[in-house]
Amino acid sequence: MTESHRPDTGLVSLTLADDVRDDLQQLLLHLPDPARDVDDAMTRTHQIFARLPLAVLREILDFGRHVDTPAVMMVSNLPTDPELPPTPTDGGSCAGKPTFVAEGVLLGLSGLLGEPVGFVTEKDGRIVHDITPTAAGAATQTSQGSKVFLNFHNDIVHDPGGRYDITNPDFLVLNCLRSDPHEEAETWYADGRDILRVLDEDVIEVLRSPLFQLNAPGGYVRMFAAGKEVYSDPIAIVSGPDHSPEIAVAANGVRCLSSAASEAFDRLQAACRHPDVARVVRLAPGQALLVNNRKGLHARTQFTARYDGRDRWLQRTYIRRSLWNIRGRAAEGSRRVHL
Prior knowledge:
Distance between the termini: 40 Å
Oligomer: single chain
Number of strands: 16
Strand content: 15-25%
Shape: globular
Number of helices: 8
Helix content: 10-25%
Largest sheet: 8 strands, mixed
Structural class: alpha+beta
C-alpha cells in the first residue's frame, strides 16, 4: 500500500458544541439507573444520542463500522453528572449515585458502535464497569493497578475452545468521571497498522506464527482456576492483511513458545512506544475514549492513588458488533451477560 493510500491511523477528536452538550444533559438527568433494565436504558439513550448533529453522528458511526477508519476516537465536551459521590475504593460499583448522566453517555456512545456485553468473570457480569484503583491491586496488570505501567494489550475473554481472541469485545468505551488529582494517568494506544510499519519483516513473520499463548484474564483465573495460569491454544499475535491487521495480546501474560517468539514479542511491546506509533491521551471529566479492541493495543501509565474518594474514576463498556456469534456463551436468564 502506497503512502498516499494508507488509511488514517491518527487519533480522531470530536468536540460537542455547548448547546448540544446541554441538550443531552437535560435529557440524561432523567435516566433511571441503567442497572435495573439495561435494554430500557439503551433504548432511551439511543433516542437521545440520535439528536447529535448529523456530521458528528456520522463520524462516530463510521468509526465503528468501517475497516479503514482510525482505531481510537476522543469525544469531548460531553455532559457530566452535577454531583459525584466519592470514587469507589474496592473495585466494585458505586452506591448512592444520585443521577446517571455518565452511564447514559457511556451507553449512548456504546450503542452507536454495537451491543454492550457483560462477562461473568469481569466485574461480576455488569454492563457498566467502574474502573478505579484499589490498594490490593495497585501493582497488578489489571484495571485496578496504579503503581505500574499497564502493558500494551487487548481486553480478551477466556474461551473453552482455546481461542481467547475470538469472543473478546470488538470495542471499548472509556468515559471519565474524575481525573486523578495529579493528572498523571495517561491512556496509550498503538494501531496495528502503525506497529507493522516500524517492525522488521522477520519480526512480523514470527508474530504471524502460532508461537504464542495468551493467559486468561485475571477474573477468570481467580474465579475458576484457583489463581493458576490458564493459557490459550498456540496462536499468532498478528493476523490479517498488513493494511488492516488484528493484534491479540493478553494483559495477564503471554507465553512465548520459542526464543525467537520471545524476542519478537519484546520488539512488539517496544514498537508500541515508538513516537510514530503511540497515541497518548489524558482523560478528563466530559471526555470519552472509543477504542477498537481488535485494530491495536492499549496501555495505561502509572499514577498516584490515595484511596480517599478523590481518585481517578472511569466507566467502561465492552461492545460486540453482534451478540449472535457468542450466543452459546449466554448466561442463563440474561440477554447480555455471558460466561
